[in-house]
Amino acid sequence: MKPRQKKLLEYDSRMERAAELAVRYPFARGPLAFYEEIVRFQKGLYSVLAQRQDLQAVATADRNLRSELDFGVLLPEYPRFLVVVERSAPRPLAAAATKVSRQSSPAWMALLNSYWTHGGKDPESGGVPPPREINALQEFLARGFLLAYAEYVSGRISGPKLDATPYLCPKCDSLPLLGVLRPEGDGGKRWLHCGFCGYEWAFRRILCPSCGEEREDKLPVYVAEQFPHIRVEACDTCMRHLRTIDLTKDGNAVPEADDLAAIPLTLWAQEFGYKRIFPNLLGA
Fold it and tell me: 188: which strand partners?
């Protein structure tokens, strides 16, 4: 199967799983329905990118994923994304999309370029934070739009050979969004899923992907009866947590969609003082 076809099927899987989970978890129906609309747009944008023969080089010679954005391709698609958000998002986000839609192309370019440069990086680990004038709603309007572009660029860069266990994405230096346990042998192998470009890389099981804590007694794992295939992997040293989708327990799970359905786990982690390493697309 060609990479383009495979990726388009991944978008289909995300939408189908979101629809399935919306029936299973009525409390998450609204966010999942909105996510489904966003993924439908992302699939369309990815298809446009894959078909363009004039798309400028998206990765520099040093394999830097965050090279210049091709605004010639992206800007004509951005109004369509804003319409999707206006039509299907919760009221505050829909209002933000309306406001941004009335701005000029240079303002759009500034917003998108800011997230492309800074998004997903950890200010506490030496990363440069985004400009303060970009609030959480505006960040979504950049992140939700650029995710398909980042996945497209990532797919054009081969995975680097790793001699160690990187805590940040080897392709774009972003924080992990999720952990994924995939079946291997008699157990599961742990992978980290990048929150910026969607790349996955292998990572040790007993190791905090935030601070490097290795003591097992400092790395509790919590599983709720309601979500037996989703692990909250916490660290009592840095008080951060990673949500991990265990495909050895539910092989039908789609990590990005299942994560969005687990709203009670977000509330639980906040109650006990754990901060997520990198929030998902809807900020949970």
Answer: 183
Rounded-to-10 torsion of CA 44, 69, 88, 179 = 90
Transcribe 234-267 into DSSP letters. Answer: E-TTT-EEEEEEETTT-TT--HHHHHHH-HHHHH
The pairing of beta strand 275-276 with beta strand 187-194: unpaired
Measured in whole angstroms, the distance separating CA 236 from the mean position of its chain's CA atoms is 24
Would you call 200 helix, strand, or coil by DSSP? Answer: strand
Contact 219, 233 (CB under 8 A): yes
CA contacts within 13 A on the Cβ side of 199:
28
Closest to 180 (Cα-Cα) out of 165, 190, 166, 194: 190
φ and ψ at residue 128, rounded to 5 degrees: -95, 120
- Tens of pLDDT, residues 192-242: 999 999 999 999 999 999 999 999 999 999 999 999 999 999 999 999 999
Residue 250 CA to its chain's centroid (Å)? 20
What length does the chain have?
Answer: 284
Phi, psi (rounded to 5 degrees) for 93: -70, -40
Q: Is 55 helix (H, G, I), strand (E, B) or coil?
A: coil
At residue 116's C-alpha, the angle toward residues 230 and 7, to 5°, is 55
pTM value?
A: 0.92
Q: What is the pLDDT of residues 71-95, one digit of tens each?
A: 999 999 999 999 999 999 999 999 9
Identify whether the C-beta of residue 235 lies closer than 8 Å to the C-beta of residue 211. yes
Backbone angles phi, psi at 214, to 5 degrees: -115, -10
User: What tokens were used for 262?
Assistant: 């687990």
